[in-house]
Structure formats: structure tokens, C-alpha cells
Design goal:
The protein has 389 residues and is α/β, with parallel strands linked by helices. Helix content is 41%, strand content 14%. The chain has twelve helices and 13 strands. The strands form three sheets. Strands 2-8-7-6-5-3-4 form a seven-stranded mixed beta sheet, with helices on both faces. It has a four-stranded antiparallel beta sheet with strand order 9-10-13-12. Strand 5, helix 6 and strand 6 form a beta-alpha-beta unit. The longest helix is centred in the last third of the chain and has 27 residues. The relative contact order is 0.17. The structure holds pyridoxal-5'-phosphate. Pyridoxal-5'-phosphate binds next to helix 4 and helix 7.
């Protein structure tokens, strides 16, 4: 008999979101009521106009002999690499070079693909965290060391007490699921630790646009990151690209070995993001595009503030929501996250995401997403408030 990769057997039996949607569907079937979902982290607003126009223009080009394009260059089209470099300079005040940028079709793909280029290294993963880090590390057969992200450390992990050994360190800021951003002084500690220990930081900046002010939006805002960090960025949440698929990885300027191997890996396993999508990505990274995206982000921020105001009135224990579309809500009365999920479904007809799905450290919490429709969300906020009162 052929042997399959047994690491798959080590994954949780069912992917969190699958289990949650089963329960919601089941509830709907039995009770036939309208359920508002504050669950899955997908966006709800349509693409910015600049992107729609860019898609139309690029599609027309694809239909003409002179402007048709086939396979794209290995790391992405120059126009998009330059747009990323300009975006960093203009919006983040960070200087990067096109040769350190790699265009891809999603930060999920990049986060999970990274394990290919590392040898026998321990992986540090916050607990709770975006499930992809843990699952992809498990499939790759890596040893995982969990970094507790708890109320005690205000959901911000520090490197204190770690042995000075090389780790592959995953950090996400603002974090999914807790909604908490990493402060500059803590990110400095991590960069210092990584350089001292020969570690590599994978900084997931998928939600950087949600930072209002006061927190670093890029790991490269920190001195020393150029020798120890790579950054995952995605247009999914910032420009409504979840169904379009475009992301970019930026590697530290002095991480040549990383850059070489990552390019090798990408050229072996990936043939590039479609031309029309790269044109749309270029458009949303322009000054005009960023302004249009800011309107989307403002909408989600307003949603989060509606939830926050309801939770404050109900005296709930919660985190995040300020620099993030996510709110991390403590379960009342010592309930587990799945128990509270059921209570909210039953009493408020609101679906949330049980914290346990993000790791054992998520027990006792649920995640609320503000990425939905404002009217529905306002209704959900009222209903949740009534559950607490
Ligand atoms: C949504 C999300 C991403 C983006 O994934 P894409 O594959 O680019 O859609 C990356 N990291 C985190 C933590 C996310 O929540």
C-alpha cells in the first residue's frame, strides 16, 4: 500500500470554519430563523472603482494580439513590484527594493509555502493564532513551540525567557483573532531576539491598513529587521481582494539566502498571479487606490465601533476592534467558547467564531468580525447586548 503523509492525521479533525458552518446550518434547519453572521473573516464591500477599471482595461489588452500576455515574470510584473515599493515609501515611509518583493496569489499560500525552504527548525506560533501557521507547520512535519497570547500578557507575546536558539517566528499584527496590534517596543524586542538567536520573523501584516496610528504597520519600520524578517502582505482585507487573490511577500534586504530559495521555490511551484489581477493590484496601491481603500476600511472601523459600544454598555470583557476588524470577546460565566457560540446562536441568532478554533489559548473567547454589512451588524450588536443584560 502506498503511504500517505501521516502528518495530516495530526491536524484537528475538522477545520474550524467547517464545524461552525455545520452547526449554523443545523440550527437554521431546525429553527428557520434569520441568523446574522459575525463569523468568517471575509469582506462584504465590493472592489474599489480603480480596480474595476483596471480589470476592464487589462481584460481588453488580453484580447488584442499586441498586448496579450502569457506567463508572467517570476516574481511578478515590474509595474506591480514598483507599485509595492512606492506604496512602502509613500504610506509607510519604509525604503524597500523591487528585488525583495515577490508577488503571489495570497498570504495564506505564502505563509504555508514558507516551510519548504527551511530545514530542521522549531516554529514559534502564537496561541491563539490564524490556524494556517499551525496546520501548515504540522503538515510540513515541523516541531511547534507555542507562544501564549493571553489576558496576562494583554495578548501580546514577548521573547523573554526563550532559549537563544534559531526559531521560525510567526507574528501577526494587528492580530487575527485577538484584534490586538504589536507595539513598537515589543516588535523591537523581537527583532533584537531574532538577530541574536539567528531566527527569522515572519510578520503577517494582512491587517496593517486597519492601524489608525501609534503602531508599526510594517516590521521594516524597525531597525535590524532587514537581516531577520520577512513580511506577508495581502490585498484581501485592505482592498476587498479575497476573491481576486493577490498578495506580496517582502523579504529583508540582507536576507539573500531567503530571497534566493524563495524565488527557487516559487518558480518551481507557482506560475504567477494573473496579469489582470496584477493590474488591479497596481491600481489599488496607487495614491487614488489607497484613498478608495481607506473608505472601505473606514466602513469596517465604523462597524467595529458599533459592536464595541454595545459591548461596553453590556459590561462585556473584550479586546481589539480599535486597529482591527476583529473583536475578541471573553465568554461570560466561565463558559467554553463553543458553549458561548451556542448561546449566541440560540439567544441572539448571531453566529460568531469560537476561540478554541484558533488554538487552545482561544478557549474562553469568541471572535466577532466587523467585516460584514453595517445594518445587519447593528442588529447583531443589539441582540448580543440583550444576551449579556
Ligand atoms: C485573511 C488573512 C490573510 C490573507 O490571506 P489571503 O490568502 O491573502 O487571502 C493572511 N493572514 C491572516 C492572519 C489573515 O487573517
Amino acid at each position: 500500500m502506498i503511504e500517505y503523509n501521516e502528518n495530516y492525521d495530526k491536524l484537528n479533525k475538522e477545520y474550524l470554519f467547517v464545524e461552525v458552518s455545520h452547526r449554523i446550518a443545523e440550527y437554521r434547519r431546525h429553527n428557520g430563523c434569520k441568523i446574522i453572521s459575525l463569523g468568517i473573516g471575509d469582506v462584504s464591500l465590493p472592489l474599489p472603482q480603480v480596480a474595476v477599471q483596471a480589470l476592464k482595461d487589462a481584460s481588453s489588452e488580453m484580447g488584442e494580439k499586441n498586448t496579450f500576455r502569457g506567463y508572467c515574470p517570476e516574481r511578478g510584473y515590474d509595474f506591480l513590484l514598483d507599485a509595492v515599493v512606492d506604496f512602502y515609501k509613500r504610506e509607510l515611509n519604509v525604503g524597500i527594493k523591487p528585488q525583495n518583493v515577490f508577488i503571489s496569489d495570497g498570504a495564506k499560500n505564502d505563509a504555508s509555502g514558507l516551510f519548504d525552504i527551511f530545514g530542521d527548525v522549531k516554529v514559534l506560533i502564537p496561541n491563539p493564532s490564524y490556524p494556517v501557521y499551525k496546520d501548515a507547520a504540522t503538515i510540513a512535519g515541523k516541531e511547534i513551540v507555542f507562544l501564549p497570547q493571553t489576558k496576562e500578557n494583554a495578548f501580546i507575546p514577548h521573547p523573554d525567557g526563550l532559549p537563544e536558539k534559531p526559531f521560525l517566528i510567526f507574528l501577526c499584527s494587528p492580530d487575527n483573532p485577538t484584534g490586538v496590534p504589536i507595539p513598537e517596543n515589543v516588535l523591537k524586542e523581537w527583532v533584537k531576539f531574532a538577530n541574536k538567536s539567528g531566527s527569522v520573523i515572519v510578520f503577517d501584516a494582512a491587517y496593517e491598513r486597519f492601524i489608525k496610528s501609534g503602531y508599526p504597520r510594517s516590521v521594516f519600520c524597525i531597525e535590524g529587521a532587514e537581516t531577520c524578517a520577512v513580511e506577508l502582505c495581502s490585498l484581501s482585507k485592505s482592498a476587498g481582494f479575497t476573491g481576486m487573490r493577490c498578495s506580496y511577500l517582502v523579504c529583508g534586504e540582507k536576507m539573500n539566502r531567503f530571497g534566493d530559495l524563495w524565488l527557487r521555490r516559487q518558480t518551481t511551484k507557482f506560475n504567477g498571479t494573473p496579469y489582470v489581477i496584477q493590474r488591479a493590484a497596481q491600481s489599488v496601491l496607487s495614491e487614488q487606490g489607497v484613498a478608495q481603500c481607506s473608505k472601505l476600511i473606514d466602513y469596517y472601523h465604523k462597524n467595529a465601533s458599533i459592536l464595541i459600544s454595545a459591548l461596553k454598555q453590556s459590561g462585556a470583557d473584550f479586546y481589539g476592534g480599535e486597529h482591527s476588524p476583529y473583536i475578541w470577546l471573553g465568554c461570560p460565566d466561565g463558559m467554553t467558547s463553543f458553549e458561548f457560540f451556542d448561546v449566541l446562536l440560540d439567544k441572539a441568532h448571531v453566529a460568531v467564531t469560537p476561540g478554541i478554533g484558533f488554538g487552545s489559548g482561544g478557549e474562553g473567547y469568541v471572535r466577532l468580525s466587523a467585516l460584514g454589512d453595517c445594518e445587519m451588524l447593528s442588529e447583531a450588536a443589539e441582540r448580543i447586548k440583550n444576551v449579556f443584560i
